[in-house]
């Protein structure tokens, strides 16, 4: 999209203007840093740095600030005057075809903008179609919207609506208990279980606050879940990252369990060998001395 808009911006001549400053059709494009006229229109993608932000532009309702067919006062190009955008009309009168119209209308920007083969300005897609996965013409828009709008955050109401005492949160207790390293009847498991019961059995606010502060201050190493630096657990609210952290530690626990099982298997085999040698020696003595 940026490349296409860049081409439109540079299409400025005596009889051609594609990105106008205002509604009047006689004003050529005017670039001032990241704005065209008074409108923010940077053609360089921002640096992808992680940050907390409200979803302003892409919501479950769709692309909020994108011009579409129902938008009022947002003509794509002038209908008359000298500053029409000939790149956006496929007609021989005021378009780029010159000698004859294009055989049919066609779409640009993944179905967002339809270029007419008549002497009329292009039209934008309907807002509902831009988020309709069943519409093949605009499916890239719908896929991007679906992937973005459905990202579940830790602040989502489906997660944060629990109330009451920690001791009453059985589902949360069971989920936490499932992550304990399953070491059988070992001191490590006993300690972990005791810690969990201490956390979920402490209904006093002071204990809850202390426990929450301790958990939030836990440092997750840089290598875990593609983190770019060591990060306190409490500052992570993206569930995809939290799932990655959980998966990492479950994998580590599984490795420990596998090693313990392997060690236990070797120990049993050694014990069995010693027992067989002992029994064989005892049988030999009994045979030799008639015992």
Automatic annotation (TrEMBL):
Membrane topology: Lipid-anchor; GPI-anchor
Chain residue ranges for the region called Disordered: 23-53, 269-291
Compositionally biased region (Basic residues): 269-279
UniProt KW keywords: Cell membrane, Glycoprotein, GPI-anchor, Lipoprotein, Membrane
Location of the protein in the cell: Cell membrane
Domain of life: Eukaryota
Entry keyword Membrane: yes
Residue span, Trypanosome variant surface glycoprotein A-type N-terminal domain: 2-250
GO CC, any one term: side of membrane
One GO biological process term: symbiont-mediated evasion of host immune response
InterPro entries named among the record's database cross-references: Trypano_VSG_A_N_dom (IPR001812)
Keyword Membrane annotated: yes
SUPFAM superfamilies hit by this protein: Variant surface glycoprotein (N-terminal domain)
Chain intervals with Polar residues compositional bias: 35-44
The protein's name: Variant surface glycoprotein 1125.2909
Organism: Trypanosoma brucei
Lineage of source species: Eukaryota, Discoba, Euglenozoa, Kinetoplastea, Metakinetoplastina
């Amino acid at each position: 999209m940026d490349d296409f808009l860049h081409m439109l911006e540079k299409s400025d001549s005596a009889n051609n203007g594609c990105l106008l400053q205002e509604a009047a059709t006689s004003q050529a494009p005017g670039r001032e840093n990241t704005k065209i006229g008074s409108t923010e229109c940077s053609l360089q993608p921002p640096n992808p740095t992680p940050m907390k932000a409200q979803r302003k532009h892409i919501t479950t309702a769709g692309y909020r600030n994108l011009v579409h067919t129902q938008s009022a006062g947002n003509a794509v190009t002038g209908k008359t005057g000298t500053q029409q955008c000939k790149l956006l009309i496929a007609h021989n009168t005021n378009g780029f075809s010159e000698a004859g119209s294009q055989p049919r209308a066609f779409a640009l920007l993944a179905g967002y903008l339809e270029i007419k083969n008549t002497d009329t300005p292009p039209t934008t897609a309907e807002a509902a179609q831009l988020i309709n996965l069943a519409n093949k013409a605009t499916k890239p828009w719908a896929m991007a919207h679906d992937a973005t709008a459905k990202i579940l955050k830790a602040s989502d109401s489906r997660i944060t609506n629990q109330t009451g005492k920690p001791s009453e949160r059985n589902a949360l207790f069971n989920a936490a208990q499932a992550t304990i390293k399953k070491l059988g009847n070992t001191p490590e498991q006993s300690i972990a279980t005791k810690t969990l019961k201490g956390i979920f059995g402490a209904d006093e606010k002071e204990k809850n606050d202390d426990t929450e502060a301790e958990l939030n201050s836990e440092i997750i190493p840089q290598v875990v879940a593609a983190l770019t630096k060591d990060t306190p657990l409490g500052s992570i609210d993206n569930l995809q990252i939290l799932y990655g952290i959980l998966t990492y530690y479950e994998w580590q626990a599984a490795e420990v369990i596998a090693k313990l099982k392997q060690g236990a298997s070797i120990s049993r085999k050694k014990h069995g060998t010693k027992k067989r040698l002992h029994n064989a020696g005892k049988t030999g003595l009994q045979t030799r001395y008639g015992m």
